[in-house]
Amino acid sequence: MVRTLLHLFFAFVVLTPVVGNAKTIELKVSESGNWIGQSLEFLKTNETNPNRILHETTGWFQKDGTVPSFGYTKDQYWAKAIVHNPAADARFYYFVFYGPFERIRLYQDNGSGLVGTVKGMYVEETEISMRYPAFKIKVQPGLNTLLFKEDVVAPHFPLRIFSEKEFEEFRYREHLFITFIYGIALILLILALFAAITFPKKSHTYFLLSYVFCLFCSLFVTGGGRPLLFELGRFFHFPTFATEQFLFRNWLLWAGAFEFFSLCFGWKFLNLAKSSSKSVRIMQLVGLFSSVCLGTLSYIDPVLVINSFAMVYNVVAISYAIISIVLYRRGYRPAKNYAIAWALYGVFITYQHLYFFGLIGPSFFTSWAILFASLAQFFFFGVSIFDKQDFTEIKLRKQNEEALANLESTHKVLEGNFEKMRRQSEALRVFVSPTVQAEVLAGIDPLLYEPVQVRRIIAFADMRNYTTFAESQDPATTYSILNSCFTHIMEPVFEHYGEVDKTQGDAVMAVFKDDDAQNCLQAILDTRRRLSAQNKARVAANLSPIKYGIGISIGTVMSGNFGCSQKMDRSVVGDAANVAARIESETKSYKVDVLTTEEFVKELGDYPNVRPIDSIYLKGKTKPTVLYEIFGHNSEEIIQYKLGTKSLLYEVMRLKAARKIDLAISLLEKAASECPPHTYKPDAIMDETLLMILGRLKEEKFMSKEAA
């Protein structure tokens, strides 16, 4: 039905003939290179015998106007030209059919019969000098009759006639223009390869490379590729005619592929799947469908396909140009060049279709319109890609600037939050034990901590005569001095991997793991050195020294959360903690800085700076506890002296255990009498501990006599 309507349309509108007499073509130099289609007579017939056509006297007509075109039709036409050579001798002229025709048959009546010659894209030649069929005809003086038959879907007759001189000039211009076109195509190919390396998006790269392929196909559609292939084949000695036929026979398929890639690019480039209306997407799908049909259905019914789908391209091109303009006005800058690309394409293809339908005459532009459309569209597509790249970079730069501003603002907020969190973390670190901190950071709820028995080293430090000291100072001074002392005691504990369990007034209790005796020892020695340095500074300032005693024990304790739901502390309780406190209280009695038990001394191994002091019953204990002094923090002179008393004190301990108190007393009296004087105390000896032990022995002797 559609095909019938199309035929009726062409029959009544486009194909209306004007019957008249043939117009003689005068061969003059001034007319060389002119279009002579308006001087031809046409005959619509299915007859194939040229002799019968030549003698046919009825049915001939001339096409009205200057365009010898009948639109797209399957009807067969013959054309007849009567050429008049006014010269007295025969001359050669060139008849050029301006278009990539499949086959053109020319029959010349030279007086003795018709002589036929075939030219065209489907005719293999040994020498190709033109991209279009060109007949070199020897025109005799007087009238000459020429018959033309074209085997092509659309019987256009864009025929030009040249003298030999004019033809050489025309051929030179054609070759120069073809070279120029190939140069442009090569530049675009280089740009496409550059884009393939530069552009990060694969869709852009695929489009550019595919478009270059379609661009070269367009060269073959317009006939411009035939001389190139011929020259390449002649240079490399291989036949090219089969390749020519493949490219030319499938030119509709190449055109369809060209449109398909360009439409796909538009879909990706303009992001129509997300950014446009449903009607626009439907139009896009129609364009894609038409591009496929143009290439595939051309093998089934070329006339119907060309008449139907060729015009769809024009509609799609104009629609895309309008869509791009709308997107450009909405702020999408790259759409401007995309609109120009489609607008130029639509103009060139519309111009070509106007020629196909016989509405305009043949010209230089009609023969190159498809290639011009390809070049123009490809160029502006490339510009639009670069523009999009630049637009994207500007947009990204703006987004980066905004993101940077937001980041700076966020950074300030985060700095404030970080400082707040830092202070909170610092408060947590200061007020909460490291064990509880580790549990919180590990995501463990410290409230769920189950009490457990553990073996620990307990170090207990307490200020001597604190009550008297506090009475003599104002609260602010007491606060300052206590914190100074706590710093000297606690920092060495943390530095040597211990943990401060609690502070009680002026006292500090530290805890170390049971296998960490050496770290505990080093922490205690550092504490004693720092307290000694503090006291030297106080004495130099005419202030009384602050005296601390330290007791160390090792044993089993219970570790757990102690307190109520409103206030809890992670602490340890047990006999070892009590022993450490009791031992510390004895440091004042024996005038030593550090006392410990025999169990801790064993943990120290071969540490030399330790000596026995006494064996006593601590408060609440039923068994005696052997006390040892640690003196590694003393001056070198005192250390050496105390090392010399170790054997003496071990002997005193043995005699006391054997109840030989008098002998033990005599040994200590002798040692005390030989002891060097104190450094800064008048009427005192260096090792006052000997006198304290001696006093305890005499007291024990007296108590024994009283009991007896």
What does this structure look like?
There is one protein chain. By secondary structure, the chain is an alpha+beta fold. The protein folds into 4 domains: 18-170, Immunoglobulin-like (Sandwich), CATH 2.60.40; 259-413, no CATH class; 447-634, 2-Layer Sandwich (Alpha-Beta Plaits), CATH 3.30.70; 647-708. The protein is built from 22 helices and 18 strands. Strands 11, 12, 13, 14, 15, 16, 17 and 18 form an 8-stranded mixed sheet that branches. Strands 1, 3, 4, 6, 7 and 9 form a 6-stranded mixed sheet that branches. β12 (499-504) and β13 (507-513) form a beta hairpin. α9 (278-296) runs antiparallel to α10 (302-329). The relative contact order is 0.05. Residues 1-22 have low confidence and may be disordered.
Please write out the topology:
Blueprint: H1 2-14, E1 24-26, E2 34-35, E3 41-44, H2 50-54, E4 77-85, E5 91-97, E6 104-109, E7 114-119, E8 134-139, E9 142-150, E10 159-163, H3 164-198, H4 202-221, H5 225-236, H6 241-249, H7 251-269, H8 272-275, H9 278-296, H10 302-329, H11 335-356, H12 364-431, H13 434-441, E11 452-463, H14 466-472, H15 475-495, E12 499-504, E13 507-513, H16 517-540, E14 548-563, E15 568-573, H17 575-590, E16 594-597, H18 598-604, E17 610-616, E18 625-630, H19 636-644, H20 646-657, H21 661-674, H22 688-707
Helix pairs in contact: 3-4, 3-12, 4-7, 4-12, 7-9, 9-10, 10-11, 11-12, 15-16, 20-21, 21-22
Summarize the structure.
The chain is α+β, with helices and mostly antiparallel strands and 708 residues long. It has helices at 2-14, 50-54, 164-198, 202-221, 225-236, 241-249, 251-269, 272-275, 278-296, 302-329, 335-356, 364-431, 434-441, 466-472, 475-495, 517-540, 575-590, 598-604, 636-644, 646-657, 661-674, 688-707; strands at residues 24-26, 34-35, 41-44, 77-85, 91-97, 104-109, 114-119, 134-139, 142-150, 159-163, 452-463, 499-504, 507-513, 548-563, 568-573, 594-597, 610-616, 625-630.
